[in-house]
Design a protein that fits this description.
Layout: H1 26-82
Length: 91
């Protein structure tokens, strides 16, 4: 007998073919879906900004390394022109 009660929690059939009331509130579900969409858009926007800033950072880092190398080469060249790098001039 207890096995016949497994369908007892389902909504009852409404005579005359009328639409049954909703089992759950769709407005809350729609609001949550809208919030989800909005949050995903915000996350995507922040990630795009982060990627752009990382690309800019990498570019500036390469420029700084290039500038450092140019400074080192210029200093080396200047020392050689002044004779500091020439060992034969000491003798």
């Amino acid at each position: 007998m207890r096995f016949r009660d497994h369908l007892s929690d389902l909504p009852r059939e409404i005579p005359g073919g009328q639409k049954a009331p909703e089992v759950y509130d769709k407005s809350r579900l729609l609001k949550l879906e809208e919030d989800t969409r909005r949050l995903r858009e915000m996350i995507e926007k922040k990630e795009d900004e982060k990627r752009q800033k990382l690309r800019e950072w990498d570019s500036l880092e390469r420029d700084a390394a290039t500038a450092q190398l140019k400074v080192e080469l210029a200093e080396t060249s200047l020392r050689e022109l002044e004779g500091e790098g020439d060992i034969s001039s000491a003798f």
